[in-house]
Design brief:
Distance between the termini: 39 Å
CATH class of the largest domain: Alpha Beta
Strand content: 15-25%
Number of domains: 2
Largest sheet: 10 strands, mixed
Structural class: alpha/beta
CATH superfamily of the largest domain: Periplasmic binding protein-like II
Helix content: 40-55%
Radius of gyration: 18 Å
CATH topology of the largest domain: D-Maltodextrin-Binding Protein, domain 2
Oligomer: single chain
Mean pLDDT: 91
Low-confidence stretches: 8-21
Shape: globular
Length: 268
Amino acid sequence: MRALLAMLLVALMLSPGCVTPDEDRMILATTTSMRDSGLLDVLLPAFTNATGYDVDVVAVGTGAALNLGRSGDADVLIVHAPEAEATFLEEGHGTSRTIFAWNTFVLLTPEPMNGTLFDVLDTVVEEERCFVSRGDASGTHMKEQALWRAWSQDGRGDVIEDDSGVHPEGDWFLSIGQGMGAAITMADEKRCVTLSDLGTALFRADTVTLELQRYDDEVMLNPYSIIPLEGPHADQAEALRAFLMDEASTLIEAHTVSGEPMFTPGQP
């Protein structure tokens, strides 16, 4: 039943690339950005070789991953929304929360856009530039909403809150309810702006013509946490946490594109 529920949730959320869960194997509910960065393809085989434990992956947004944890349909989570993670633990879910790697969020734009982060958001709104939002309650979507709130609180403009979350109003704002890879593909095809984690942006750099724009603002930090859950595979989940905090550090640091690391092991 547990695996069936997980498969149904994956199907409903249209998450391509997920592994079919098996009741006898540990289920990792993780973000689409972690999957789309290619890092899991490096880490999980190494974990299996080191421990003998196999892992089935369900890749969804952070909000959906946390819900899989709440319902008992996952054994361990890898997510990147600190406030939502803290709430999850306060509710009594999860045995611990450990940041094991981090990168930053970036903007992907059709052409270079000068100025600060808020200056670029000003331009997007004022010129009604096409903006692709994941709109899927993922960690990236939560960060995007936090940016729009901060932009509005800085006196830059007004935002609304609806089924697509917090955002400026306008037909140029496209909420797609899909993962990071799909958002980048649509932004590239339609020549739009989108928010991405650095790892997926670098992984996709050779497949799209979007400009990667970085900002030093602390708000753009993007920590990834592992949260083991109580249940039949609790020992395996804890083993994965220990692996990510030790042996995996070298693998995380070595996961590069054109010599540039996608993630930094440890805490920011």
